[in-house]
Amino acid sequence: MLKHIYILLTGLTIVLFSCTPEIKPDVIKDELPEIFPDYCNVTVPATIAPLNFRMKEETEGIAATLKGANGEEIREKGKNHVEFPAKKWTKVLTENIGKELSVTVAAKTNNKWVEYAEFKIYVSTDPIDHGLAYRLIAPGYEVWSKMGIYQRELASYDQDAIIENTLLTGSCVNCHSFRLTDPNDMSLHIRGKKGGTVLKTDGDVKLLNTKTPKTISNFVYPFWHPSGDYIAYSVNNIRQVFHETKDKRVEVFDSESDLIIYDVNKNKTLYCDDIMTKDHFETFPSFSPNGKKLYFCAADAKQMPMEYKDVRYNLCSIDFDPQTGTFGNNVDTLFNAAAIEKSITFPRPSPDGKYIMFTLVDYGNFSIWHPEADLYLYDVESGETRPLETANSNDTESYHSWSSNSRWFVFSSRRINGLYTRPYISHIDKNGKESKPFLLPQKNPDYYEELLFSYNIPEFINKKVELDARTVEHLANTEGTNVDQRE
Predict the structure, then answer these.
(1) Is pLDDT at 486 greater than 70 in this prediction?
(2) Which CATH class, in words, describes the domain spanning 2-123?
(3) N or C, fewer C-beta in 10 Å, the chain?
(4) Prediction pTM value
């Protein structure tokens, strides 16, 4: 009797996952379906929102059957796209961690159902962080209207504003940064008539005025020290020019740049004479996971803008002692990109200390408008460097960041249409092998066709960002705190 009850309950469980009638195809094709987003054979975390999709070509209907390794099944059908129910999706993924899901797609055209070859979705055993933080901004150049920094929970489609520039008319909010994905420690800039650098540490929020007589600008590109005691910033004199050709619309470059380290506890800047020279441009700093090295990009100074195509940045490092706040005596070149007529930007070390990911371009350091920009991986121990061929595309791959466990990375790409950057996520194993990236899922796949904003600086966060926008607004209307100008 108990055996019969068990069989009945098991059958009911499968039925619950199979509410949509099975499609009987008129034609069967031995080829993968062309779907958008392309989720065929991707690796995902167990806590990812449903990967809804549609056919790239217009259809009269679409159906999908998702099967788990234990016999679970979800059948869904739609006119324009497939939308998996969140609870069923989460249950199937949770019960198939470390296994693979099978997906079969059928599309209706000319009143006939065509079934395509099955593809897989691999559910990784590696967890991923709570969510992403990013800026949404129109892909313009010298002007903007509404923009903001937002956060998105990866397990759902929930998106919330962290801060929007509508609080301060005419301002620009940018360069958000967190310490080891922890939003309790956060830095972001407000540019415009009012503003400065907003610094959040352990719940305390203040506004810094960061321009000093010794620096060429306010603080720009940030990276937190793992201890939370320091933040490395670049200081840059940024300019832009416009191209007449459609392939490259705009070029952004530095006419001069340096690096400083801000001591969070003492409210003072630390300078290194070996870095702050007129002979070199330095930018995009990042600390090693143990906090004892500062990585950065450095190039021989050129006459700008006339020689902007001759500026090529190498991957460099210098020792840093967090106990004393002092620098080493030698700048080391880790990867000489200029020797192969290339240039490095956005060096980002993995939290486990094994790798440094960077973007490689033909010249310059602002890769977002460079179609040739690709992601590369530098092995810290061996010094070997290789392209992330599975993640790269024929268009721009640019800004990227690591998950807290070094098993996932998110990056911005223009691969869809060459104009708007979209966030892609890829799994990377302990040997540095990346998986096929997947586009951040949305409830309706047409979301990306309708969104007229680019995703900028995607960063992992291990929990929801708590920042009171009204507090920031109040601070931006005050004089703020001057950074101590002593060396």
Answers:
(1) no
(2) mainly beta
(3) N
(4) 0.93
